[in-house]
Batch of 3 targets.
Target 1
Amino acid sequence: MDGTINEKLLEADIASLQAAMELGTLTAVDCVRWYLERIERFNPILKAVLEVNPDALAVAKSLDEERQKGGSRGPLHGIPIVLKDNIDTGDRMHTSAGSVALANHFAPKDSSVAAQLRAAGTVFLGKANMTEWANFMSPTMWAGYSSRGGLTLNPYGPGELFVGGSSSGSGVAVAANLCTAAIGTETSGSIISPSSQNYLVGLKPTIGLVSRSGIIPITHSQDTAGPMTRTVRDAAILLGAMTVADPEDTAMLSKERIAHKDYTRFLDLNGLRSARIGVPRQYYRGLDQARLAIIERAIALCKECGATIIDPISLPCESAKWDWDVMRFEFKKGLNDYLAKAGTGASVRTLDELILYNETNRDSALKYGQDTLIWSNETSGMLTETAYIESLRLNREIARGQGIDYAIREYRLDALLFLGNEDGLDLSARAGYPAITVPGGYAETGIIAEGGYTTKGPQGITFVGTAYSEPSLFRLAYAYEQASNNRFAPPDPV
């Protein structure tokens, strides 16, 4: 491997790559070759990338020629990224949600997100592994596992540290420098969790800011795509390229929708000065000493940077008893609608057929069973059940009116502060509100948690706001990131 190229690309951000390509000291082909080499060397261990794009080098070459002849399309011209495997691309890559049932499926066209990123000049390096069906298949399935790709491992401690899910491969690919950035998707924690566990910046946007068309769903009330990057600036750049309104996505037609094409203009070194940040102590109660120390240091740093900390804040929803009926009911309808329009190579066209396929191919498809799929399939798929309608109403009323909106109004806050993807982050998911996580600290000790993983390792600091508060969250996250400088790259796996 060329030492000069390695020096330029290891932990490189989008701006530095663009600057080098504009100077002519680096090309998109150089970048793609370097990342493909690292994927070939390290992916057999990490299992972060399901497949590489057979056309990646050709696309990079074309973009290099375009730059020479007519200049750059913008900040993403020639930048290599990976997409989570539930995001459609109308090319020679498959879209499978990690399932062997869709291992040969080619989507008929780009998803809206992929089309926007392609138009911006990104190079799709490949599809990232993910927790199969976005972890809506079995309650015992390990985060990061798919029947198609195996188990994704955290590069900071392969096999020991929790990798986070369900955008596990997207997170590991960025953390381990297998790409410049990635796109994940979230229903509840699926961007924030793997970003936190892999020392990344992850943004879960407001529902309605980014199109969901052409993305294999769980629930239209909570699903969204979002950027996973090594810096806040890179997340802002990517988000700005993904906000064109899509008439096929009804959530984007709201009159309250506020979208920007350039979120980098909200980045401010003094973004914490005079900000009001709420500390919901009730949601810290399950933290061990090492992780509690990290959130306490983050609170102290925010204070040092000029923020007013309201500690503690109390939310009326803290004792709420949640159910998962919205996800259960919406999954069946959403998946059936998607599969009905799937492209060539799909082995199944309905949830019924998927369950039967898995049973017929138990050895390859059912390492952890499919109880969640069966549970969802017990619904009508029509979204007419009283239980669904009431659950959706309560989710929004409690998570918004008794949760995030209540706190922001009552305490006059800019954001709430959480550690990683701990209990309170489900509030933002159910409310459909944005969250951004930034590297917060490395826990040297931990406790054994679900799945046999230890809680030690990378931890994110997560800011949560109200609808379309992405500009404010970027201000806070950027100021915190620059003041803390916590991220460090993992060692190359051996």
Note: Residues 206 and 295 are 24 Å apart (CA to CA).
Target 2
Amino acid sequence: MSLIAPTKRLYAGHELRTLRTRLSLTQAAMARRIGLSVSYLSQIESGHRPVPPRVLAALAAEPWAPRDADDETRLVAEALEAASDPGIAAEPIDEPALRRAAQQQPRLARRLVATHQALLRAQEQLRILDDQLDSSASATDSLPWNAVRDWFNDASNYVDAIDRRAEALAETGVPLEERLRADFGVTVTYGAAGGLVRAYDPASATLRIDGAQPPETIRFALADRYMRLACADLVAETVAHSGMTSDPARDLLAAGLYNYAAGALLMPYEPFRAAARTTRHDIDKLRRQFGTSFEQTCHRLSTLQRPGALGIPFFFCRVDMAGNITKRHSATRLKFARFGGACPLWIVHEAVAIPDRVLVQLAETPDGVRYISIAKGLVKASEDFTRLPRRYALALGCEASFAADFVYADALRTDGAATPIGTSCRICPRGDCDQRAFPPAAGRIVVDRDRRGAVPYALE
């Protein structure tokens, strides 16, 4: 794999393999123990991938790990992350120097790590404040819809119990319509559903589906009803422990969990992850193989976060014609604006105006991280002339270090120039952006009476 990473990483494959050999563990057993896939562990041991900090933490938590050595290794890894943060304008510190610091001045190294973590927390708080300003009222942030989106984001968009049950139920080969009738006595009819996509009558156990919808949407409707009957207990338990404080939030979370379960039933985890790796995450190939829509497939790719069987960490979002982000999740370092105002240089905005064509972009955020981002505009037809069709765009992407595993990267030179994007103008530090809508909140502007660039001020 070609790795194009903005920061240095800790490569300790030899040490990890030595530890595994000393413990007489196979790669499969070791991978299960520390929450990795076998292939990922193999790549670490062969020196092709760095050891993620979370794996170092998992090793340190094991009773068989040498405590002092692991503490030092974890400290070095965290110090490397802090010292090589591209968002900090200072000369980076090389790995040998940090190793010596961890051995000779561990308190100084821990102070460096703590300071960096405080900086990251402050940046997150700034982003939240920016969200509140952009929403025009901080109370908007506590609305049920936003609470549910945050819950899924905090869960890494993966719900293990529901996903595993869906995977077990998927391995039958029997069409869903037949399974609904055989397992739950549900009759499915097709035709106009009174302006609804689908409607279910519990009294007669009848599911009515608008037959004019695309086949993928109909299959999803069948999967949704099946999982509402097959995993109601798991959804109820998950909602009960979610911390949601209002009935609307709990109801929305339940609806989101059933949608998640339907996607997991149509695209069972291990077969889908294997197919994604084989096709290099080619969405059109995957959706044809699993009979799903482009959006359903993109969303499923963003959920492959099962411990011990991780997929590529993707970000995924849906943007409407006004630039509002109506669906979002990120397993990467990229963070979305919650109330619109996303960077106009991001390719997803262009895709809204160009339906049914995949656009590809190499983008770089202010922290120096590069992303391969794809976007596709979609149009959902309306019932009749009096109702406008729904137009929106989807974006899916990953860090450029995964270029070899993402087929769309073949259209780019990942070592070439990248489009500079940010989360929001209000917190973006770029001083030379021609698309800036307003200055950053913490910036000082200077207006020159005699000279002017693309914007009427300069930043200091």
Note: Residues 367 and 379 are 34 Å apart (CA to CA).
Target 3
Amino acid sequence: MVEQGIHWLVDNVEGPLWDATIVILLGVGLFFTITTGFVQIRLFPHSLREMWFGREVQGDSLTPFQAFATGLASRVGVGNISGVATAIALGGPGAVFWMWLTALIGMSSAFAESSLAQLFKIKETDGSFRGGPAYYITQGIGSRWLAAAFAIALIFTFGFAFNAVQSNSIVEATRNAWQWDEHYVGMGLVLLTSLIIFGGIKRIGKFSARIVPVMALVYLLIAVSILLIHYDRIPSVISLIIRSAFDFSAMAGGVFGAMLSKAMLLGIKRGLFSNEAGMGSAPNVAATADVKHPASQGLIQMLGVFVDTMVVCTCTAIIILLSDNYGGEQLQSISLTQNALQHHMGEFGLHFLAFILLLFAFSSIIGNYAYAESNIRFIKNNPVVVNLFRAMVLFFVYFGAVNSGGIVWAFADTVMAVMAMINLVSLIILSPIVWLLLKDYHRQAKQGIVPVLDIMLHPRLLKLRLDQRLWNRR
């Protein structure tokens, strides 16, 4: 029953929806890049400072670094390994260029959405914070129905579809390396996931803050070692990526098929899946951080997009393109990346990637859950509803483990596009507030003081905050 519904959704909705999503995704990113004066370049040093010098917090709220690590837990995962491989296999080397462009443009959208999430967050009785697009749509735009539509789309995307993708990739990697049975792997993932998600957001933040930097560092050390060995070939690989990006001989399908190459379509799709810029996911964790100015968390999450795509995805792409086989549909997804590492490192590479993917994908499951739980609580903050949702998450973790990769990835693409469309339109509507927050932050930073938002100085924000208090009492 569930699988039939997913098949219908993919067959009838995915193509036309993605045609529109690509136009809006790039358009909104360019809009914020220009109107913020290229914030991703101007204030990039500030994003590094904000992440590392976040203060300690009390209660159940997250530090800026914990919020960054939890956001990165969902970004750094299957998208960097399996998604990059799929994009290259089906779209060619040029797909990597479009992943880069999506990330660079999207960094400004990531700044906007996470800054808004901080401004419109609400405080729980235990001292923790909760927020995200559903909250800034309700309080900033005043549309409860649109906020509910976004929350439902995010729950399906992160709570169900993306977690199915993560478990599916774990199964493929462990099957290639150790011939593990997918049913046993699925049951093991369900057990481990349940132990963490029933512990609350603070446990998720602590888990991510510990495991994400370690696993990312190990993976990057291996990748950099391979790049250093083949340093003389890297310029030719970069040149191949750029040349192939503008090869329109292989066209994509859909309404805009005459304008989009497969490289462009796959690069944008997999780029968005990997870094989530503008999708509306990272703001859910950005809102849980305890910071003095909303823009500071916007800068931190902007940095997450850069690390994800420009660093981790690029390393994966170059490793694949330096291998002996990276073309064709016969070898794609996790199998392609494992083949590349096996080419460079022998049998160790095959086993290493299976192990590291267990860490990457499992941390992504935890990060995905954190996003979805915040939106479940937005719709109905009831323990029974939350626990029922947790049971559904565990079901889809198992569903992804035992079903084909094709249907799992297509399901994820479809619901991801729905969620992104709602969030991107909302960001345009709320753009004047983003500009106000950025201006206030930059004014204080130029004076050499720690930026702190004083709502009393901004009449429009003061009115929004009063409206927010009224909304919170409902």
Note: Strands lie at 122-123, 129-130.
